Write the structure tokens for this entry.
Amino acid sequence: PPAPAETPMAASAVGPPPSRRYLNFTGFPFPLGPFTERQTVMTELVKDRVYRFEQTQDLGGITANVASVVFRMRDNRLLVYNPVAPTEEFLQQLKGLNSGGVAHILLGTTPYEHKIYLAPFSREFPSAKVWAVPDQFSWPIDLPGPLLGINTTGGQLVDTAGESGAKAYANAPDLTAEFEVKLLRTKQRFAFGATVGEEAAILHKDTKVLALTDALVNVPAKPTEVYTESALLAVGDNTRNGSTVGNLVLKGAAAVNWRGSMQTQTEALWAASDAGGEGSLEERLQRGWERNTLLGLFFGPSPSSLVDPHPSFQ
């Protein structure tokens, strides 16, 4: 079927805006920001049925989005797949859906950046059934799920098909009536016992919308609304003597480039910037988006692609 249309939904203009405050300083050894507050952008994917709630996470000035997909079930209750941080803004957006409450909360993967929000979000909806993929882990100490705040009052997410699925979801006929679940698993654990590749794919039968976490990656040509202009300008900075993320990335790439050509490329880039400036605001934002994306998707993108990231998007 064609991809669902996306309709950004504006917040209500009545009264003061809801708080975006959310404190998070955890995540060993590299805590993920933002540390004190985060914006939530709500998008209607399928009218009156499916919604996306998007926030950002950043590490060292490199920003990535993290999203929750929310389905309105036939009885007007909600199924929440991979909840994001339960800020006042996010909770008010959910309330604005005028639903019958949250019926199910699904943690569809194992990495830290998704499961960290499960416990605080589920406490907001104590009557909801909580489900999670198996083999959750933590590092450097591998703690059991309950000590990580993963209290699966519903059970573990398994394939809905077959006898094992019928048994696992025996107490959730509303879930299996509207959704199919398929567990995507690696054959063995990765380094340090981490099952990074474990994920539950959720298919909504009514709308044919498939929800995944990291198994499918879509990089739009332009940044989505949740990315801030200041962050993109900082990553896209081409000035010679700045202290922005972009400047530090270019200097670092020149230092570790094994081909030995990066210093020549960065010098040419800085010389062009000295002579003609960095381009229009639109060009700088686009460069920041493209450079940020490469740094977010790859641990070590080609240094030359950081100098000019645009060809990577062609």
Notes: The radius of gyration is 21 Å.
